[in-house]
Structures are given as structure tokens and as C-alpha cells.
Specification:
By secondary structure, the protein is α/β, with parallel strands linked by helices. 41% of the residues lie in helices and 16% in strands. It has one domain: UDP-N-acetylmuramoyl-L-alanine:D-glutamate ligase (3-Layer(aba) Sandwich), CATH 3.40.1190. Strands 1-10-9-8-7-6-5-2-3-4 form a 10-stranded mixed sheet, with helices on both faces. A hairpin with a 3-residue loop joins strand 9 and strand 10. The mean pLDDT is 97.
Length: 287
């Protein structure tokens, strides 16, 4: 088992260069599926984070009751309304039919209200069948989804409570024990696990990256939604799920440190979005 602390030099290797003659769509096409009557902001944060990390196109699929407010936030988002207030089989069928054929990656679950679990499984399977790389978060982290994910370029991004729901065991407060349990489940299920905490643990079961944040201001709601958008955005450019998840964690943390230095303990997750381009400049490469 290989274990490493994340660094700028390591993460630089995980973010592919952009071709000087690239065209729209070459640098990532991403789908975000999330939101509910209460949690309208989560998919917005994820969508803008995906754009801010250099993705060309982001499709934001949300319940129809949230469409007007989401479109009002940013003209950069391509909004695809779900036909129902929650994720249903019918809503998934309509969504899959409306998606571009060349979709690279997707993140599912941020604030998402799910009417029936089979609708989530149908969406996940439909995207994987099209070779779409996936990041799953929040309400998408249910044990029934695990059999679909093995060796499929999938990242799951649980906090401790979601980890217990997904894998049936609670992570210890001991960092060494957390590392072992992440590695065990990543290896067993053939996925990349990103366990969020004071130290983020990212593993595919054979290689593990650690990122100790020390950013207490990032306890504010929505920072995980930003992270999910970064994971999907970077996955759209790098098929390696472990590398994309590790890079996303690092970039999210750099943005958090930048905002905390500027605003102290008074940040919002929207502030993170503003600082992502600045902290990513050292990783920009054009060939």
C-alpha cells in the first residue's frame, strides 16, 4: 500500500494541459444532478465549481421548482429541468434522453430528493453504460449502488455519517484507523473513496493520498458541494478517478485557505468559488 501527502508538485501531474487549439467541449462536458425544494443551492455550487476549474460545458439538472432561481444565479449554467420535484424513474428517463452524447463526467446527489431508490440506480447505470465518469455524494451514497460501481471510474465523497450509511461502519476518529477503513472499502468495492474530514483521505485501495486541511472556516455549509463539482470537473479531463479526486481535494483546500486568509472565519461557499481560479493558476499548462 502506497500512502502519500498531497503537494503542489504531485497535483500538477494530475491536471492535464490544455491544447492551444482546443475547441469548446474538448476540455470537459459535465452533468450535475441535485437539488430539492429545500436545498436549491447545492447543485449551483457544484456547477459553478466545475466551470471554475476549467470545464467547458456544465449541464445542471434540477427539480423544475428550482429552475427559475438557478437560472437567475448565473447565465453560465445550462439548466435541464427534472420533470418531477424528486428523482423518479420517469424523470431519469427524460433526463437521459436530453443529455449530450459526448458527456464526460457527472456528479449526483448534492441536496437531491430521491422519490425511489431504483430511479437513482437507473440513472447511475445509464451513465456508466455510456462510459461517463461519476462522482457520487450525499443522497446518492446508498449501499444499493455499490454493486454497479466496481472498476468504473467512480469517486464517492462521503463525510463520516454518509460513510456509515454507504459501507455500514463508522470511521474512527483515529487517522490511522480512518485510513485503513477507507483503503479496505475502496479495494473491496473497486472504487475511489474520498472521506472528508479534518484530514481528507483519498484511496483506490492500492494508493492513498492524505490532505490535512487545518481550515476551520470550511465547516460552513456547501464546501462539500464545491468539492463535488471540482471532482466532476477534473474527472472530465482526467479519467483516473484517484488522481482527479486527489486534485479536487487539494484545490478545494487551497481555495479554503485563500478565503480564510482574506475573510477569517466568515466565509461562505460562494467565496470559495471566487478563489478557485486564482489558486489554480499555478496548475495551468497550455501545449
Amino acid at each position: 500500500m502506497v500512502r502519500k501527502n498531497l503537494s503542489v508538485s504531485t497535483v500538477k501531474k494530475f491536471i492535464p494541459p490544455r491544447k492551444s487549439k482546443s475547441r469548446k467541449g474538448d476540455n470537459g462536458i459535465v452533468l450535475i444532478v441535485g437539488g430539492s425544494y429545500i436545498y436549491h443551492g447545492a447543485p449551483i455550487l457544484s456547477s459553478i465549481a466545475a466551470l471554475r476549474c476549467g470545464t467547458d460545458l456544465v449541464y445542471t439538472s434540477i427539480p423544475k421548482i428550482n429552475v427559475a432561481s438557478t437560472r437567475a444565479i448565473s447565465p453560465n449554467l445550462i439548466v435541464i429541468p427534472l420533470v418531477d420535484q424528486k428523482l423518479t424513474r420517469g424523470a431519469v428517463n427524460k433526463l437521459v434522453g436530453a443529455l449530450p452524447r459526448n458527456l464526460h463526467s457527472a456528479t449526483i446527489g448534492m441536496g437531491l430528493a430521491i422519490q425511489e431508490r431504483n430511479s437513482l440506480l437507473h440513472l447511475v447505470k445509464s451513465l456508466l453504460d455510456r462510459d461517463v465518469r461519476l462522482s457520487l455524494d450525499a443522497s446518492a451514497l446508498i449501499p444499493e449502488v455499490l454493486p454497479l460501481l466496481a472498476n468504473k471510474n467512480v469517486v464517492v465523497t462521503p463525510h463520516a455519517g454518509e460513510f456509515k450509511r454507504l459501507f455500514g461502519v463508522s470511521p474512527s476518529d483515529s487517522i490511522n484507523e480512518r485510513i485503513k477503513i477507507v483503503e479496505k472499502n475502496a479495494q473491496e468495492y473497486g472504487i475511489t473513496v474520498l472521506l472528508k474530514g479534518a484530514t481528507d483521505v483519498i484511496s483506490n485501495g492500492s494508493t492513498t493520498y492524505l490532505y490535512e486541511k487545518k481550515i476551520p472556516a470550511m465547516t460552513v455549509g456547501g464546501t462539500g458541494d464545491v468539492l463535488s463539482g471540482l471532482v466532476a470537473g477534473l474527472l472530465s479531463k482526467n479519467r483516473n478517478a484517484l488522481e482527479s479526486a486527489a486534485a479536487a481535494t487539494f484545490i478545494n483546500g487551497l481555495a479554503g485557505k485563500s478565503v480564510q486568509k482574506r475573510l477569517g472565519l466568515h466565509m461562505t461557499s460562494m467565496d470559495l468559488l471566487d478563489d478557485i481560479p486564482t489558486v489554480m493558476k499555478p496548475f495551468d499548462k497550455i501545449v
